[in-house]
Amino acid sequence: MVATKRRFSPNLQRVRLVLDGKPTRDYVCTRCLKAGKVQKAV
Questions:
Q1: Helix and strand tally (H, E) in the chain?
Q2: CATH number of the domain encompassing residue 18
Q3: What is the pLDDT, as a whole number, of residue 1?
Q4: Considering its fold, how many domains does the chain have in total?
Q5: pLDDT recorded at residue 16
Q6: b/e per residue, 1-40, with b = 16+ CB within 10 A?
Q7: pLDDT tens-digit map of 3-41
Q8: How far apart are CA 16 and CA 27, in angstroms?
Q9: What residues have CB less than 8 Å from 30, skipping those under 6 apart?
Q10: Which residue range is the domain that position 39 belongs to?
Q11: Which pLDDT value is given to residue 9?
Q12: Structural domain includes residue 16
């Protein structure tokens, strides 16, 4: 039996990244950053 309904929330970071060829600021989870799923704007 589970005492509490614990919820896991993603570790979000506000990052400058490239979306559709334009640099934008957006919230991305650290797992996605580490895995290279998004391209950071330089």
A1: 1, 2
A2: 2.30.170.40
A3: 75
A4: 1
A5: 95
A6: eeeeeeeeeeeeeebebeeeeeeeeeebeeeeeeeeeeee
A7: 898 999 999 999 999 988 899 999 999 999 999 999 899
A8: 9
A9: 10, 11, 12, 13
A10: 10-42
A11: 94
A12: yes
